[in-house]
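User: two proteins, same treatment. go.

Assistant:
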Amino acid sequence: MRPTPDDTVVVGRIGRPHGVRGEATIEVRTDDPDDRFVPGAVIRTVPADRGPLTVTGARWHREVLLLAFEGYDSREEIETLRDTLLEVPLADLPALEDPDDYYDHQLIGLAARLPDGTHLGEVTAVRHEGADLLVVARADGGELLVPFVSAIVPTVDLAGGVVVVDPPEGLLDL
């Protein structure tokens, strides 16, 4: 299913409270957290009845982003937000400068095909685990992890809804 103009993308998830003054740890799911989570930013939530939330404070504690939200001043209040997803409209995302860069949501739902046109399956997720990996639900069942590098994925056709996967020997057997 291709996104529609009203779709949103998840940019973070609220984790456990930090300290006693109403800060939450954030599992960051955006490349630009310092621009996305600025004081005054209003962020949609899933579930929707927990928001929208207005950021009142943002700081890094070691490698963890901590956010404070308007109306949530204690550890107990922040606990009620645990596991809330933070999302923004796709229209609010900046345009990518490099034509070979893609947002994850642009790749999800694309058909994966071999260079000869054989249907492999559909991209269902993108993982960022040291290297970027396309998760392909195979047409014949199971799941395939495809390194998202130009040598293995030489073509991404967003308009056509297709990625071409040119796997090295043995990748399809994993």
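Protein 2:
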Amino acid sequence: MKKLIFTLIGFLSISLAHAQYDNFAVGFKLGEPTGINIRKYFNNINALDLTVGTYGGIIGNNRDYRSGKYKNVGLAVQVHYLWHTPLFNSENLHLYYGFGGQINSRKYYADNRAHLPSPGNYEKSLSIGGSLLGGFEYFLPDGRLSIFAEGGTYIEVLQRPFFLSPNVSAGLRINL
């Protein structure tokens, strides 16, 4: 997991260094997940969206999972391929939608380990799944700042197939 985090930090650093030459946006989103968001726009139709942050802090902080519970906030990495289009013939308001994947790392408290003292009463759990995302983005008149609201769902494949979790967030991006 540490290698994944360092790889993502490296990607973020390189992206920021090249942002002045490409159509990038960097921002922050609050919700599920909460974290740093990087978006790379392509050809006015598509975008690649990366979020690194927390998972389970707002929705699902204490939630049934497998034969136990999640009782904490974990780390999440999301990547989505998006299509976006202007709404109402406006360059300032866009609709976007797409699909991608999500990796989560959280502490899992199994029912059969509840009698053990901490830290032996949990195990670190890595989960992987797909996610769907849709939202609206409003570009302020100068075009450098945008506000967005989005929603979707995470559908887990590994550890618990078909475990669903909503992904709802809003935030702010600086378009470089």
